[in-house]
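Quick one, T. Sequence first:
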Amino acid sequence: MEHKEWKGKTDGLPWMQQTLIRMMRVTGVRFFYFIMALVLPWYLVLRHKSYLAIYHFFRRRFGQSPLRAFLSVCRSEFTVGQIVMDRFAAHAGHHFDIELEGDDLWWQLNDSDEGFVQLSSHVGSLELTGYCLKARHKRIYALVFEGESSTVMKYRQTLFEANNIEMVVPKEDMSHIFILSAALRDGMIVSIPGDRVYGSQKTVTCDFMGGKADFPLGPFLLAVQRQMPVLTIYTLRVSAYRYRTFVERLDYTPGLNSREQMTRMAQKYASSLELIVKRYPYQWLNYYEFWKE
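Structure tokens:
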């Protein structure tokens, strides 16, 4: 078990988020869990479309009854809200215990001259991962998708810089691919979400949670072209102020051509993600109809 502390500045954040962080320095995070429980019903009403996606997730993938699936949605939304609040609590300087499993794989690659790809996912809290796995000899190039205001994005960049992380935003001219490829060539770390397509035309269909789902081909194409090591990283909430990080290496399959290798690697990632989602179903941040059937 490792005890981690991190405290961020609030300069540049929207006033509401600045106020939240400052209040957490005084009241703690549990008070905001209570507030979330009060507003959760209204939140579900206002976000009906995302509610249906999560509801179908519990109904179709876990075979739950309508009532139980509804209760699972409520628990899921509350758990995700706790994870978001924990992120602000980290900014406010609160302590988190983060248990690391398989992190020796990460440190071994970090200390080598070889670059590698780390696959992130929308489950748990990837941001807290960055506070315990700080690159010592390499820079992390993290592919992020703009979905927040420019002010928040600039603030995130400031925070990432403090942890030797550079944000790479996808461009229509695909120039971000050259940045990531050059980073791997120079022995750096490339972090890419492996579970979101984001309109990409290059996808691969994998078996996932008893159905078929599309995963982006790009992360696996980038790794296979250069035969780079690939790690999966998940950071899951265990309890208040306590998280667990899992690191796993996806091995290449001998004797396959590049296309087969990419497809096999994508399926290995999907199978790895499935184990995590089944173990922590309420931390799966999925707000659209993920499956093809």
